[in-house]
Amino acid sequence: MKMRAKLIGDITEVKAIISHPMETGRKKDDFGQLIPAHFIQLVTATLNEKPVLEMQWGTGISKNPYLTFHLKGAKVGDKIVVNWQDNLSQTGTGEILVSAG
Amino acid sequence: MQRREFLTLLAGAIAAMLMPINALATAWNKTAFEATRLADATKNLGIGSEIASSEEVEIIAPDRAENGAIVQIEVTSHIPNTESISVLVEHNPTVLIGHFVFSNGALSYLVTRIKMAETSDIKIIVKAGDDYFTASKNVVVLENGCG
């Protein structure tokens, strides 16, 4: 996961890109076989271990999901963590410290 | 012990072992995400059918998308005490794209990229307290993004 968190004024802008195929289960491969569904379902973002954004995703989120969100009250050096879990129970995590914008 | 009783016990034990996994899975709203019609998706999100349109819900998305596989959207709710934002695409095979819940200082704002199968309205539903607000934005899709 690639992440960035910048404090600009009193708002922290957090950006994240997760590497994930986000397969819908409706697409066929070159041999005409359906590619099984494989997509992220649950994503949680925390600021210093407190949840700030809890997400449920479906197959309609694009491949390699991209996300920007804004936090108020975060300071330089605060830790932001993003955790995800997909429909095959695979998980991933990323973290970043807030930097001055 | 009868074989049947043993099997019942065994099944119970396995079910108990699987419980924590199931508890996690219920956090994902399967029925809402598998809904193919807008009304079914919103019903399964617990949203009533009568929702007020609001200009306080802002959607920035392209008027035309060359490739429906990646359509970037930016959503802002200017409604005080916004708790969640739901993103739906009316003409997608499954209409619910994502459900975003904000807390502890997260602003009711998000940017993400979504798939669109064909030309459709993007519908945003905002929850603030017990009230729901909605806004829509039409995007013309030139190439199917759902495959």
Task: Spell out the blueprint of helices and strands.
The complex is a heterodimer of chains A (101) and B (147).
Chain A lengths: L1 E7 L2 E7 L22 E8 L2 E8 L8 E7 L6 E8 L4 E7 L1 E2 L1
Parallel strand pairs in A: 1-8
Antiparallel strand pairs in A: 1-2, 2-5, 3-4, 3-6, 6-7
Chain B lengths: L2 H23 L4 H5 L3 H7 L7 E2 L3 E4 L3 E2 L5 E7 L4 E8 L6 E7 L6 E6 L5 E9 L2 E11 L6
Parallel strand pairs in B: 1-9, 3-9
Antiparallel strand pairs in B: 2-4, 4-7, 5-6, 5-8, 8-9
Task: Please summarize what this structure is.
With 101 residues, chain A is mostly beta strands.
Radius of gyration of chain B (CA) equals 20 Å
**Sheet with the most strands, sense and barrel status of chain B:** 6 strands, mixed
Mean pLDDT of chain A: 97
DSSP strand (E) fraction of chain B?
Answer: 35-45%
Helix content of chain A: under 10%
Q: Kindly report the CATH topology of the largest domain in chain B.
A: Immunoglobulin-like
Structural notes for this entry:
The complex is a heterodimer of chains A (101) and B (147). Chain A is mostly beta strands and 101 residues long. Chain A has one domain (2-100): Immunoglobulins (Immunoglobulin-like, Sandwich), CATH 2.60.40.10. Helix content of chain A is 0%, strand content 53%. Chain A contains no helices and 8 strands. In chain A, 36% of the residues are buried. Chain B has 147 residues and is of the alpha+beta class. Chain B folds into 2 domains: 1-28; 35-141, Immunoglobulin-like (Sandwich), CATH 2.60.40.2470. Chain B has helices spanning 3-25, 30-34, 38-44, and strands at 52-53, 57-60, 64-65, 71-77, 82-89, 96-102, 109-114, 120-128, 131-141. In chain B, the strands form 2 sheets. In chain B, strands 1, 3, 5, 6, 8 and 9 form a 6-stranded mixed sheet that branches. Chain B has a 3-stranded antiparallel sheet with strand order 2-4-7, with no helix packed on it. Chain B is extended. Residues 20-26 of chain B have low confidence and may be disordered.
